[in-house]
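Submission sheet (multi-component)
Chains listed below:
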Amino acid sequence: QKEVEQNSGPLSVPEGAIASLNCTYSDRGSQSFFWYRQYSGKSPELIMSIYSNGDKEDGRFTAQLNKASQYVSLLIRDSQPSDSATYLCADDTGTASKLTFGTGTRLQVTL
Amino acid sequence: DTEVTQTPKHLVMGMTNKKSLKCEQHMGHRAMYWYKQKAKKPPELMFVYSYEKLSINESVPSRFSPECPNSSLLNLHLHALQPEDSALYLCASSQELGEQFFGPGTRLTVL
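Outcome: structure written.
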């Protein structure tokens, strides 16, 4: 049974700080990894995808992948109150377009 | 156009009603998905269509019936639902493999 695990939080960080969200996955065959942001009552929004080991930066967001250790993380620099949401990690083995989602980490950015 | 649209936004139905959810994308994506999401849980995959053919049915009860009339449209026909089927129903699309983009969802309440 494939699993993607995340700490449910809430993770509370002050405005302007770096938020670090972590995710581990069980399937060594996983090829692709995605971070979605979901505001309460809204649908998931794709914010980052990462396919190879290392870092990938997009604006204030950096995704990090370590396939040997089977973890993927998301760093949010200069956190804003508008970043307060649930962040879902997902992986895809690439064989059937099936994403396995973690349970999500709730992030609270405080003023 | 990088949008997935869903109608209706909200739906209230009785257990004897028949209704349909609709999803449309114009990104040329070849895969489309239906997910169900309960409060504080991650999205749960229901069906995958690839090139307009049903490729994955995650053992969904027959009271949910998907249909893909063409490469841009996806329907979910509902009949004889139960109150526990009340949830947010999400449509997503992707290239054959890769990033999935979600629509805004239909909030379904079964009375």
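Remark: Chain A has a mean pLDDT of 94.
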